[in-house]
Riboflavin synthase
Amino acid sequence: MFTGIVEELGEITAVENLGDSSRFRLRGPLVTQGAQHGDSIAVNGVCLTVVEHEDDWFTADVMAETLQRSSLGALTVGSRVNLERPMAVGARLGGHIVQGHVDGTGTVLERKPSENWEIVKISLPADLSRYVVEKGSITVDGISLTVVDAGPDHFTVSLIPTTLALTTLGHKQAGDPVNLEVDVIAKYVERLLGDRGASQGADR
């Protein structure tokens, strides 16, 4: 489990095509500290497993489905990525509960800079819109953010200078894809209420 608080802005240093998958080599001196084979690291919000590692880099295999369902398929050598290690037991939950399971992708639609922050508008797949609410949480490229405005096919987020400086959202431009993970609690509530409705209907 992750919290959506990016620890490090890493970089793709190599991409190896394995046929039905790809192996990424990523530079991340902070997140590789103490890393072991089999550990999880979130890359732009996608939970990946460490295969090999050295002092400042690690490799991870990315299956075809992940490449197709996330923005990782668009990454190339030199791409910057958000990196986060799983939350340690007993640590503070600085963002919100993030699984590292991407629900879909959106596209940066526009950016509106102001003196001390920036508003970013992002497209939202129709099947995810019911999970996104004003002042709720959403994960964008692995970053825990608060929704400012929620529309039927888009949402906006307000980015502080720290987020702009230390994550990929400081560099994304209109047309760039981003990974989206909605609040898992909303999905559980929907499932529970749906099951309850079905049960009540059967009782009748």
In short: DSSP finds three helices and twelve strands in the chain. The longest helix spans residues 184-203. The mean pLDDT is 92. Residues 8-84 form a domain with the Elongation Factor Tu (Ef-tu); domain 3 fold (CATH 2.40.30.20).
